[in-house]
Amino acid sequence: MGGLAESPAPMRPVSRILMTSMFASGDGGAVSTVIENLLLRKQKLVEELEKAQSVEDRDKIEHQLEQINTALDFLDRPGSDDAR
User: Fold this and answer.
1) Which of 27, 41, 52, 83 might form a disulfide with 57, Cβ 3.0–4.6 angstroms?
2) CB within 8 Å of 80: residues ≥ 6 apart
3) pLDDT computed for residue 2 by the predictor
4) What is the number of H-type helices and E-type strands within the chain?
5) Residue 26: CA atoms inside 13 Å, Cβ hemisphere, count?
6) Could you tell me if residue 38 is left (phi over 0), alpha (psi between -120 and 50 degrees) or otherwise beta?
7) Would you state the torsion angle of the CA atoms of residues 5, 10, 16, 18, taken in this order, to the nearest 10 degrees?
8) What is the pLDDT of residue 71?
């Protein structure tokens, strides 16, 4: 699969955000900020997706959106803010 070589680079920003949220797990405000940042990034990507003309660009944006959705699902799990 050719897409495997490209996946680590787009995943890095989301991974950094998740690491930040893990270190701040005792602070609900920090997790809220992480979620807000993910939602803002998601909104920008949706806007980019609407403008993207090439299939390759659309695929990259959709991949990043999937990663953000995964991160949001992880942060939204019951008990995710209880883990200390």
Assistant:
1) 52
2) 31, 74
3) 44
4) 3, 0
5) 2
6) alpha
7) -100
8) 95
Tokens of 36: 């807000």
Amino acid found at 28: G
Which tokens belong to 35?
């979620």
pLDDT of residue 80: 56
Structure tokens at 56: 């390759």
Q: What DSSP assignment string belongs to the chain?
A: -GGGTTSHHHHHHHHHHHHHHHHTTT-HHHHHHHHHHHHHHHHHHHHHHHH--SHHHHHHHHHHHHHHHHHHHHHTSTTTTT--
For residue 51, the 8-state DSSP code is H
**What's CA 75's distance to the chain center, in Å?**
10
The tokens describing 42, both together, are: 């998601």
